[in-house]
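User: My advisor asked me to double-check a structure prediction for Putative auto-transporter adhesin head GIN domain-containing protein before group meeting. I don't want to rely on an old file, so could you generate it fresh from this sequence?
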Amino acid sequence: MKTFYITAALAFFGMASAQQTIKVEEFKNLAVVGDVVLTLVESNESKLVVDGNEEDNEIEVHQEAGNLVITGDGKATLYYKKGFQRLAASSDAAVTGKDELKVKELSISVHQDAHVELNVNVTALLTAASGDAVVTLTGSAVDHSIRVDSDAVLDAEKLKTTNTIVTAVNDAVANITASGVVNATADADAVIAIHGSPETINETATNDAVIKRSK
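Assistant: Sure, here is a fresh prediction for Putative auto-transporter adhesin head GIN domain-containing protein from the sequence you gave:
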């Protein structure tokens, strides 16, 4: 395993320490943990650029066998050449990607107050969120499977899907858009809002949960 420790508050180096760059190997799985604010940018090279303009900006990077783990406290930009297949964010991490992430399959797992915002173009998408996490998705997916739990929020109204399976429980909220088939299950005060006038909606709501249909 390769591990890099970057402390970007070295006034000692003046302006030279404003940014630190780490070469990144190709990866399929990306995990972001802690108070990391990460911006994703598609590029012709893979690298992590750590912002050194804030005091105590510390980022740790671990790379091994297609896995890239970014932890610590600070802001950084991750430039990637190829789309990845799995994103996990937790413990207050914030991950934003404006460029279209085009892959066949993608798994997104967001927990413990983390925030993720992505623009995707995928065939099969799996999204899981819990513990006050917030996920915002745009773009398109053929099939989308969702589970949101424990006050998590999924805003996927601007993600156009054909078929969606969505489960929301324990005060979680999910906004989804589909044109084909929707299987929706809500329990324990959860709320699901369905957009896009799907052809078929199979729904089950229990224990004060609500499933709403919007045009």
